[in-house]
Amino acid sequence: MRSALMAALFAAALLASPAALSSAARAEQPPPLSKGQSLYVPVYSHISHGNLDGRGKPSELLLSSMLSLRNTDPAQSITVTSARYYDTAGKLLREYLPKPLVLGPMGSSELFVEHKDKTGGSGANFVVEWKADRAVNVPVIETVNAYFFGTQSVAFTSPGRPIHPNP
């Protein structure tokens, strides 16, 4: 009975693997070329952790956040036209780009939210808008949220997600 079960599981794994491979291969296909996007990028200016205190509040760890802007096109420039920073309530705190930022082919830049800046809260975010003259590879736009002190450290990325711009 046990060997029959093992044989059935092995056969099921063999039959499933072509589908799994094709879906994995599909996931690795490059996204379609684009002439621009608006992206929502999560920022974690602090994270809650630990146990609740006497007032029912968790401990908070303040993080810095670097918005990384990376042109992935080897032949064409892109222009980042806006990087608006919003707080947890959705209130616009500031525009990080006083003028458009041109990123040459394979070029990158970053914008920085300091560790001490907790105005955004745990639900802070950027809305980044970029454009190109021709359809190009979609850039990688994400935040790197980090805390380093002594032997303690935490760092993680938050990818940008395409959204529809305001009409």
Q: Can you tell me about this structure?
A:
The chain is α+β, with helices and mostly antiparallel strands and 167 residues long. It folds into 2 domains: 1-30; 35-163, Sandwich (Hypothetical Protein Tm1070, Chain: A). Helices cover 16% and strands 50% of the residues. The protein has one helix at 2-27, and strands at 34-42, 46-52, 58-62, 64-70, 78-86, 92-95, 101-103, 108-113, 125-136, 140-149, 152-159, 161-163. The strands form 3 sheets. Strands 1, 5, 6, 7, 9 and 12 form a 6-stranded antiparallel sheet that branches. A 4-stranded antiparallel sheet has the order 8-4-10-11, with no helix packed on it. The longest helix has 26 residues, at 2-27. The protein is elongated and about 55 Å long. The N and C termini lie far apart (64 Å). The model is unreliable at 4-14 (pLDDT under 50).
CATH topology title of the largest domain: Hypothetical Protein Tm1070, Chain: A
> Fraction of residues in helices?
10-25%
Taking all Cα atoms into account, the compactness measure Rg is 22 Å
Number of domains: 2
| Average pLDDT for all residues | 87
Q: Unreliable stretches, pLDDT < 50, 5 or more residues?
A: 4-14
The major sheet is characterized as: 6 strands, antiparallel
Order of helices and strands: HEEEEEEEEEEEE
CA distance, first residue to last residue: 64 Å
CATH class of the largest domain: Mainly Beta
Count up the helices: 1
Helix/strand/pairing category: alpha+beta
| Overall morphology | elongated
* Total E-strand runs: 12
CATH architecture of the largest domain: Sandwich
Beta strand %: over 45%
